[in-house]
Specification:
Elements (H helix, E strand, L loop, with lengths): L1 H10 L7 H18 L4 H5 L1 E2 H5 L5 H4 L10 H22 L1 H22 L1 E2 L2 H14 L4 E4 L3 E4 H18 L2 H10 L1 H29 L1
Antiparallel strand pairs: 1-2, 3-4
Helix pairs in contact: 2-6, 6-7, 6-8, 7-10, 7-11, 8-9, 8-11
């Protein structure tokens, strides 16, 4: 993380305090407008290569205000709440600058993905927040659906498994999109995640060897 420390020393004053509250407030507002005023608002705010080339530059920033919708209103509300929960924890742990940098890297990855593949959304950005939270607080217990106690690491494993399954089922452009949209997580946690995977593989190999 030396490169992050150097950036923080040089540019630490250039950050937005309480960024997660701004992002979540924007997502709540956009979703309320979509429900009660204009159901097409997300279409005008999301990332689209053709729209960017047509001069709609605001989409580079407004796409993060579009909540990811993987189902009905309940899934959107739970997604917004969970994004706020993990984002607030990361912001407290890292401080404003590092959290700003993590989000900005995720946005930059989405920009590249959009330019190369045609579109991008907030799914991987929200997922990268959850995975970062799971890396930092694996043993923390939270309530799934506010009822079922579950350790954060299992959330992370399940979310990562879904990402891998989706990644493997896509074509080359889809794979490129998913990788680029996870840029923040890859730069922050890539070396640590690779080390953990190798350690797990070695443990499993040792267990199988000693069974015989």
């Amino acid at each position: 993380m030396n490169w992050i420390t150097k950036l923080e020393r040089k540019y630490g004053r250039f950050c937005i305090p309480n960024l997660i509250n701004i992002l979540i407030g924007g997502q709540i507002l956009v979703y309320a407008i979509e429900l009660f005023v204009n159901q097409y608002i997300s279409f005008y705010l999301s990332l689209s290569r053709s729209a960017l080339f047509a001069g709609q530059i605001w989409r580079l920033f407004t796409f993060v205000l579009v909540p990811f919708s993987g189902g009905g209103p309940l899934s959107v509300v739970l997604g917004i709440y969970f994004t706020w929960f993990v984002g607030s924890a990361l912001e407290r742990e890292w401080g404003d600058f590092r959290f700003n940098l993590y989000v900005l890297l995720g946005m930059a990855g989405a920009w590249l993905a959009c330019l190369l593949t045609g579109s991008a959304d907030t799914y991987c950005l929200s997922l990268s927040l959850l995975l970062a939270f799971a890396m930092l607080y694996p043993e923390l217990q939270v309530l799934l659906f506010f009822v079922i106690p579950l350790k954060v690491k299992y959330f992370g494993i399940f979310a990562a498994a879904l990402w891998v399954f989706s990644f493997l089922s896509m074509g080359m452009l889809g794979k490129l999109n998913y990788l680029l949209c996870m840029l923040g997580f890859l730069l922050f946690f890539g070396p640590q995640a690779w080390h953990n995977i190798r350690a797990w593989v070695r443990r499993e190999q040792w267990k199988r060897k000693n069974r015989h």
